[in-house]
Amino acid sequence: SHPCSCFSFPARSLFIQTQDTPNPNSLKFIPGKEVLESRTMEFSTPAAAFCSPLARQLFRIEGVKSVFFGPDFITITKESEDLDWNLLKPDIYATIMDFFASGLPIVTDEAPRTDTGES
Predict the structure, then answer these.
(1) What pTM did the predictor assign?
(2) Which among 52, 56, 65, 110 counts the fewest CB atoms within 10 Å?
(3) Residue range 63-74: average pLDDT?
(4) Cα separation of 29 and 68, whole Å?
């Protein structure tokens, strides 16, 4: 077996890959499972994540600034360049894996508010 920089947890059937984005503060996590069928959702604050149990859990990780769901990926943006991805990644991997293992819906039926009246 070759050493690999990916995290693989044999007890769980999820193998999460990461992919860089043009923004060094954002990292794409690809769980190999469907996230949102054919749409995207962005959560820029913990309050906006009220309709997504997974986004709420990801916001509990210190340093997470925003969460974006795509059809088959999750993009996490961290609060500052000073934060090291190597410190954030294990918590993010664990949160995503535990969530998929739980079988909970990624988003509930409540639609997020799109008003940008907050200042």
Answers:
(1) 0.80
(2) 110
(3) 97
(4) 10
